[in-house]
Each structure stands twice: as C-alpha cells, then as structure tokens.
Here is the input.
Amino acid sequence: MYRKLNNLAAGPTMTHTRPLPNDTDTAPARFAWAVTGSGHGLVESLEIAATLLPHVDLFLSRAAQEVLPLYQIDLAQLKQRFRVFRDNSASAVPVGMLYDETRYHTVVVAPATSNTVAKCAFGISDTLPTNMFAQAGKLGIPGIVFACDTQPVVVTKSPLDWVELRPRNIELDNVARLRQIDHCHVVCSLDELRAALDARIADIRMPAPEAESTCASA
Here is the structure.
C-alpha cells in the first residue's frame, strides 16, 4: 500500500492511509512533518509522509540531513517531491510559518530520536523539530511523535546491518513523560503512526489530493 522511497523522485501514484473526502470547505492546509537524526523507521516514515502529498511539507534537522545519505536517501530527490525546509538558522526561522493558522494543522515528528523525545518532554527546543513541536503546542496545534525507543528491546536497521538495542529506563521514562505534554500524541510503531494519521485526517476532513506540481525548497 505504501510506495517505496526510491520512487519518491518519480511521478506519484497517490495512495493514502485512508480515502480522503472531497469536501474542501473546511479543509485546513497541510501536515508539517519534522525528521530527526534517527535511522529507525526513517525510510518507512518518509514513505508514509509521501502518501500525504501534496498535503505535507518536510522539516529536516541538521542530524537528519547527515543521516539521510547513510540510508541511501537523496535530499535532491526529496526536494523534487516535497517542499523541504532545513535547519539552517539558530532561531529556527521556518517555525514562524506555524503562526499562519491557515498553513499547518498538525505537526508530525517521525522518526524521533531519544534525544528529541527527551528535549520535547522537558521543554527544550534547540533544533528545528523540537522548535516546531514546542511552538505547535503553544499554539494548540496537535502533534504526533513517533518515538523510537519505546520497548525494552528495539530491533532496528543501522546503515550496516540490523542491530538489537536495549533502551535504558531513562529513555522509557522520557517517552512516558512526553505522553503528558499538551497536544501531543505519542506513537510507538509505524502501524500506530498510520492509525494516528488516519484519525487526524478524519478530524480535519482533508480534501482529496490535487495533481502534483513541483514544490520550491528552502
């Protein structure tokens, strides 16, 4: 059901997590999808994001930009499909777009490293994704966070091979703390991420996708 990431540079076959209604009278703008430096679920998260086109923009942390090529994901190809904003300023300038209430209705952080989860849980915002998350919460914009370290044992694909990780209690505690943050929905798997997006689409009555056009990149 979900397209492979190596097709992101090709013309779209519009597939969505659920059918999107055609009622445009109440349609807000789009998802703001922030990507951190996690390799866990990175390819799959971007595949899911692509199913939301053209109703989604990408916001990349500096760590995400470093990690993408390790997983054979070409930034130039992403720019051909998505509007992409990068973490190029100390003040996270792209966050200002959240203040236009017609632009973004939801902030997604997927995948989210344990570092990002800890920062979000304790109100620290010093990267583009954590700033997006914090400002969204202050504006009452719902956030969906796909936290990576949520189970006693996590099997993940590194750039070289599959590895088994054992998150510490502090990582698991931070996930629990993040669940208490206002306007935040924490998901722990790709299936939960899809379900959360389905629910959000139903809530906002997103319109059916239009024909794709080339998007400018920041």
